[in-house]
Each structure stands twice: as structure tokens, then as C-alpha cells.
Amino acid sequence: MTDVLPLAGYAIGITAARRADELGALLVRKGATVRYGPAIRIVPLADDSELYAATKLLLEQPVDAVVATTGIGFRGWVEAAEGWGMGDELIERLAATNMLTRGPKAKGAVRAAGLSEVYSPASESNAEVLQHLLESGVDGQRIAVQLHGEPLPYFVDSLRAAGAEVVEVPVYRWVGPADPAPLDRLIDSVLDGAVDAMPFTSAPAAASMLAMAARTGRHAGLVDALTKRVLVTCVGPITAGPLAAVGIPTTQPQRARIGALARTLADALVERSPRLHAAGRDVELRGQAAIVDGELREVAPAPMAVLRALAEQPGKVVSRRELTTALPSGGEEHAVETAIGRLRTSLGEGRLVQTVVKRGYRLAVATASEDV
């Protein structure tokens, strides 16, 4: 018998546009099933009129400082400028300014362009870059801030409040998906209980998913599922913002990296997996499956929901009426009976779930009174 991978039996929903394949591959290697529903898309740089306008504005007037927030964003900006015939002029303008970089990747991109930075915090924090600028004094200065996919309102507003003129340079702007169907299906899968975890890599993706749910009358159900049942992880606190605003709890890695996000998600799912001993068998509950004596058994959403409800009170009798509330779409007591039958078949061991006549069902786990 082969070892069961740590995420085998779990279904994970990914809304990312950029690096979705990289994140998905990390999770698939751990055994997960991945469902993709891009919530955003990136405006191609060559077609981005806002980036073009910001670059022209920067070249028309001197600038005192430029903040590079991401390596890929800075490189993309320079490449777009080269495509517009402004590459050399942009590098000359940047060489005459004070360059500040948020972290090592931005620093590397700046140096690769033949430029050098005057400041880069060890913390890789925008907040520390902002603090450095404010302490240095920005009143009357003209400062360009390279954005990456999302605005930095606190950063920009703080500079303006301190007297600076700020030019926002939006690189890789994110807008809604060109085809909303995959995201629509992913939301349905979450509501149907067929998704166990959702990692988010950007605030716009989280906000876009919530907005689609609101437009289609599924917002309350989605928030409830992400709050109570689905594990939600975010690459950092900014990404978690739209989710925290509606009360959805999230976990975050210590380092804002894709690999760390995948590890945090995997560790959290493994930690929350119920394990019990029933009918002489060792059973572990996974998202869409159960491991019975080391063998992975796939279980459909409705039977899995019933199994989870029984596992919350191992050995105790749970009534059919209580179990109807656990079903993803509700239903009558007959639906519970059907789910129990399918559950027994999926587990390959009918004795794991016992029928208690006229009362309900229980897992065949010895209770304290039976152990005495």
C-alpha cells in the first residue's frame, strides 16, 4: 500500500491570475485536487493607457524620488517604456532621482537596469519605506510610486498629507476576469461543500470573488462557508483585507511567499483533520475523502457532510433531523438516509456507521460509559 500524500482528499480553490499555475503545482504535488476560478485578469502593459500616461507625466517634469515596490513590476514598467520608445529616456530620468526599493527583488530589478538605490529596508515593508521618506522630509517634493496590481492608498495619502506631489505608476493593473464562468463555478463548488480551502495571493482577487457573489445573490452563503467550513489562507495582511472586512478569518504565513503560503495551508488542513478509531478501524477525515486503515476513500459532498456531523459527536447518536442541517443543500430526512447509504459504500465498511432505531445514527466509537 502506498503512502497517502498529505493533501490527498482535499479540494482547493484558486482565484489567482498571476502565478496560479505555480501555486496549484505546489498543492498538487502534495496530493490536492485544485479547482481554478480566476477572479481577476491583468491588463497587458502595451495596452495600458494609464501606465503610458503616468510614464509620460514622469518624463515631462523632474522627479525627486521613485519608489520601486516589486521586481516584476519595475521590470515590466521598463520593458513597456522600451516598447513605446521611451526606455532610454525613462532610465535617464530614474538615474537622476533617489531610488528606493521595498525589498531584494525590487532592488535586483533596479540594479539590473543599471541603476542603484539609496534605501531598501531589511523588512521588505512598504511601511518602513514610507517611514523613511516621511522622516527625510517630503514637503514640496515630487515622488513617483510604482504600484503593482493594486493601489497603496495609505502610502500615497500619507505622502500627500506631508506635502509631496505623488505620481502613481500603475503596473499590471487588475480588472475582472474576461470569462467569469470558472469563478462562478468555483463559488458554486464552495457553496456545495466541494472546496475545503482557498489560498489568496492578492486583495483584488478576494474582493472580486466577493463582488461576484454579491451580484448573484450568493454573498451571505459564501461568507458563511468561508467563515465556518473552508480554510482561508492569505499571503499577507493586505491580501486578507477584503475578507477581514466581512468577518472571514484567515491564516497567513510568516513570510509573504507562494511556497510559504502552500506550506501554511497544508499544515493547517492536516492539523484540523479529525482522527478516530471506530469498528476496529483507524479513520481520518479529509475534505472530500476519508482514510480507513491507511487507504484513501473518496466520499461525495453530501455523505461527507454527514460523516463530519457524526464525527463532531463521536459515539453519540445524531438524529436524522440534525443531520439534514449538515447537508450542503439541506433536504428531508430521506436525503439523510440516502447519504448514509452512500457513505457506508464509500467507506467500504458498513459497520463504521450504526443505525439506532427510531433515534438516528452514530459512529461505532466506544463512549465513556461503554469503556467502563
Task: Tell me about this structure.
By secondary structure, the chain is an alpha/beta fold. The protein folds into 3 domains: 125 residues, Rossmann fold (3-Layer(aba) Sandwich); 130 residues, 3-Layer(aba) Sandwich (Rossmann fold), CATH 3.40.50; 97 residues, Arc Repressor Mutant, subunit A. The protein has 16 helices and 16 strands. The strands form 6 sheets. It has a 4-stranded parallel sheet. A 4-stranded antiparallel sheet has the order 11-12-13-14, covered by helices on one side. Helix 7 links the parallel strand 6 and strand 7. Helix 1 runs parallel beside helix 12, helix 13 packs across helix 15 and helix 14 packs across helix 15. The radius of gyration is 26 Å and the shape is elongated. 38% of the residues are buried. The C terminus is likely disordered.
